[in-house]
Amino acid sequence: MQTSYELHSHGWSSVYHPVPISIGTAPATVAVYAKQRLRWAMDSTRLLLFDNPLVKPGLSRWQRAHYLHTSLSPLLACAQMIFAVGPVLSIVFRSQLSSTASQQAYPLVGLPYLASTLLFIAAYAGTRSTARTVGSALFNSPIYLLAFARVASGYRPRSSGATEKAFQPRMSLLVLPQILLAFVLVLSVVFYAFDTRADRPVFALAWAGIMIVTIVGPLSAISERRAVVERWQAPMRATIVLAVALLSAWTFAH
């Protein structure tokens, strides 16, 4: 991105090339994918902080808006992560989401926000890519937060350029936050099943179910038997939806 950023600022223009230039360069494992996204997020954050598109000379208005959106995306994903995890944590810790609002008021903001996000993604990337895009955004949020912390602390990587493709490990420490998130999501559903409060936040249960269904796809890449895991994704999602629906019906019945 830095190369195109400098070329655009010196008057160069972009063209759309419909024919693939390279094949097989995408990361084959989730560990390499996480490392690649971390490097991209750090580059975007440095661009925002030290070479901001708003004051970069030579850019057109559309180019300025494009690079500003690209550099802001990791920070926006971090904010969305906090917004998304809130209802789930309210189940685990049995706490209110806000001291000034009820549990039932949260969906009035959260559900329209989620629906509008899905509509924008569907309009931009197509309906078939919507679930994958949302899952990737949820998966990448902890990585983006780490990228911002590294840039803010002055961390400089030992190497730059393309991610190493010769050796592609399947597991990395960068994937642990996503595994922990999935564990907390499943734990919240279990907590809800044994919660005896009369005002249990049923919407938070539905929210947790949506997030589990969303993150199942990206996490399946961790397994060495990816084809088998992908074959079981639909039954896993159906089981999660059924469990959440039964618990929700039980709540309304009692």
From TrEMBL:
Q: Which residues cross the membrane?
A: 72-93, 105-127, 173-194, 200-222, 234-253
- Among the Pfam families in the record, one is Cellulose_synt
Provide a Gene Ontology MF annotation, just one. Answer: cellulose synthase (UDP-forming) activity
Q: Where in the cell is it found?
A: Endomembrane system; Membrane
Q: Which InterPro entries would you find in this protein's record?
A: Cellulose_synth, Glycosyltr_2/OpgH_subfam
Q: Which UniProt keywords apply?
A: Glycosyltransferase, Membrane, Transferase, Transmembrane, Transmembrane helix
Coiled-coil spans are none
The cellular component terms of Gene Ontology attached to this UniProt record, alphabetical and capped at eight, are: endomembrane system; membrane
PANTHER family reported in the protein's UniProt record = CELLULOSE SYNTHASE CATALYTIC SUBUNIT A [UDP-FORMING]
Q: What is this protein called?
A: Family 2 glycosyl transferase
The source organism is Candidatus Protofrankia californiensis
